[in-house]
Write a structure and sequence with these properties.
The chain has a six-stranded mixed β-sheet with strand order 1-2-3-4-5-6, with no helix packed on it. The protein has a six-stranded mixed β-sheet with strand order 7-8-9-10-13-14. A two-stranded antiparallel ribbon has the order 11-12. The protein is of the alpha/beta class. The chain is 33% helix and 20% strand. Helix 5 runs antiparallel to helix 6. The relative contact order is 0.11. The protein has nine helices and 14 strands. Strand 9 and strand 10 form a beta hairpin. The structure holds zinc ion. The site of zinc ion has 4 residues, from loops.
């Protein structure tokens, strides 16, 4: 399969999965807009085989009505438990579906939203807004535990897999990673690379899961050094349990959120 990332008006990515066996067939992942997807299909004379949807948020779904109306009807494949009404092919965790002649497993990844799913093949993971390159999504209105468990589930996948997430947030994320784990040489090396790419306008998504495991703090909150940092920060809280991944995730997330508000993680691009 060939995977193409279409830019959007926001920092989202819309992924197009093209079949090598049948060069006219293509799938779209999380189309929050239609105005680049439709011309892409028309210019390449592609047939829409299906739309993969990780979760219901508007910046992943707003293009769907226009795309179906213009490119012809095709299944909208997702978990039926979300509020988005146009899902026409319901899939459940553990189910395997064929996309571009490759078997993709459906993974339940609740946390960002309750119905969030990921589409997994050992070469490519479409993980929406749960795992980001060098970071992770927010647990909107959800408790921390499912998000922590979803992140650990993704960490255990084939580490050669490429992570195709829903947004380009790598620069701010890796800057936070360098604050959370200042002694991690892999993070410092990646920070320099991400800065160079971002300055040059080169996408930092996708990235290998093996790199994420070494440098993404949200896949590392239970590792000795980061865990100790979080424990030290939270020792004033009587109920903080260092052996509770939900606590560790929530503490790390709150730390990043507080820095996000200052704007410091996005600074330094012009240095
Ligand atoms: Zn979202």
């Amino acid at each position: 399969m060939e995977i193409v990332g279409l830019p959007t008006d926001y920092d989202n990515y819309i992924w197009v999965i093209r079949s090598k066996a049948d060069a006219k067939l293509a799938w779209v992942v999380d189309p929050g807009e239609s105005h680049r997807v439709i011309p892409y299909f028309q210019e390449h004379n592609l047939t829409l085989a299906g739309i993969l949807l990780t979760h219901h948020h508007y910046d992943h779904t707003d293009g769907i009505v226009d795309i179906l109306a213009t490119l012809g009807n095709a299944p909208v494949i997702s978990n039926q438990r979300g509020p988005f009404k146009l899902v026409s092919q319901h899939v459940e965790a553990g189910e395997v579906i064929s996309i571009a002649d490759h078997d993709f497993e459906i993974l339940a990844t609740p946390g960002h939203t309750h119905e969030h799913i990921a589409f997994y093949h050992p070469e490519a993971l479409f993980c929406g807004d749960v795992l980001f390159t060098a970071g992770c999504g927010k647990a909107w209105h959800q408790s921390a535990k499912p998000m922590a468990e979803s992140l650990i589930k993704l960490r255990n996948l084939d580490e050669n897999c490429w992570v195709y997430c829903g947004h380009e947030y790598t620069y701010g994320n890796i800057n936070f990673a360098a604050i959370a784990e200042p002694n991690n040489p892999d993070i410092l090396a990646r920070q320099a690379e991400v800065k160079r790419k971002t300055q040059q306008g080169i996408p930092c998504v996708p990235e290998r899961l093996s790199i994420e495991k070494k440098t993404n703090p949200f896949l590392r909150f239970d590792q000795t050094e980061l865990k100790q940092t979080l424990l030290n920060q939270n020792k004033i809280f009587e109920n903080f349990k260092a052996d509770d991944n939900g606590n560790l995730y929530a503490s790390l997330r709150a730390w990043k959120d507080s820095l996000d508000q200052t704007g410091c993680l996005e600074a330094g691009l012009n240095d």
